[in-house]
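Q: Could you fold this chain for me?
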Amino acid sequence: MKRKILVVLVALALMLSACGAKSELDKQRAQWDGQGVTHYRYQLTISCFCPFMDVIPVTVEVRDGKIVSLTDVTGEPLGDQFRESFEKAATVEGLFTLAQDALKNADKVEVVYDSKFSFPSSIVIDWIEMAIDDERSYYVTEFEVLP
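A: Sure. Below is the predicted structure, expressed as structure tokens.
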């Protein structure tokens, strides 16, 4: 009986912590949306057990919610073989969606928001806590609003 109560309490605690994280995400998204930023650029680094380590950080430019360009560390357009891996996180809206999906489905998630613009500047995801090499992290640096 005590074990069942403990399991229920742990499950409830996990659900409440996920709700709090989602509420924070919603608050930060509203702050981002309220700023009306439509044209911006940033450096995106994805850390994982992935084959594209020699092309990062990738420079992302976005205008009106659409990807204008993705360029690799050498300044060349990002090749098709890696483009899909970066497109999910290549807009601020994509970063929020990624964080929201992870908060809903992953075992462990840490999201840090930019103090000025409120977008997710760091998303660290461990999809299955006891699995090896399933972790993925997204880091945004050098964010700048463009005219």
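A (continued): Residues 5-19 have pLDDT under 50 and may be disordered.
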